[in-house]
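PROTEIN DESIGN WORKSHEET
SECTION A - STRUCTURE
LENGTH: 167
TOKENS:
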């Protein structure tokens, strides 16, 4: 039996077939993953975090919700830090979908999902305004100081996960 397997694997046609089946299986698994993007994007005082997210197919009657997960935050010495969330069409304009404030106002580094901070935004009208019915979009999270002035240098916010779901 082992000799037969060794002889069969010497066949170039069989090896190519096995490789093709393996590539097809990997592609199928990747395409069947949920509509979300795992991110490790960081927003700083000078640059927003940007991440591409899949937009699931909709029949036009459902409600689309964007979930933004913050996995780490480095708080400055002073300031009331929050974020502005925008949804962008690839190669197009952006629509602000909401704002949030980091509470409690302290540095965090989540070691599990219970320690992460989650923010949800209703984005149905933003998707319609951008003309995105399915496919992909870009989510941008820019830091703001909600009390006054610019965001202090050294402030960082790290996204853990971003996803759009339909209800």
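SECTION B - SEQUENCE
RESIDUE ASSIGNMENT:
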């Amino acid at each position: 039996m082992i000799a037969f397997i060794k002889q069969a694997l010497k066949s170039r046609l069989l090896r190519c077939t096995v490789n093709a089946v393996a590539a097809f299986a990997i592609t199928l698994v990747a395409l069947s993953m949920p509509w979300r993007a795992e991110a490790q994007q960081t927003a700083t005082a000078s640059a927003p975090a940007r991440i591409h997210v899949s937009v699931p197919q909709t029949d036009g009657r459902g409600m689309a919700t964007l979930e933004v997960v913050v996995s780490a935050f480095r708080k400055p010495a002073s300031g009331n830090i929050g974020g502005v969330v925008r949804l962008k069409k690839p190669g197009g304009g952006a629509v602000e979908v909401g704002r949030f404030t980091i509470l409690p106002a302290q540095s965090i580094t989540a070691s599990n999902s219970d320690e992460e901070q989650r923010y949800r935004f209703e984005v149905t009208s933003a998707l319609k305004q951008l003309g995105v019915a399915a496919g992909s979009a870009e989510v941008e999270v820019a830091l703001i100081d909600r009390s006054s002035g610019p965001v202090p240098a050294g402030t960082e916010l790290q996204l853990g996960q971003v996803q759009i779901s339909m209800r």
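SECTION C - NOTES
The CA atoms of residues 36 and 163 lie 4 Å apart.
The longest strand covers residues 64-74.
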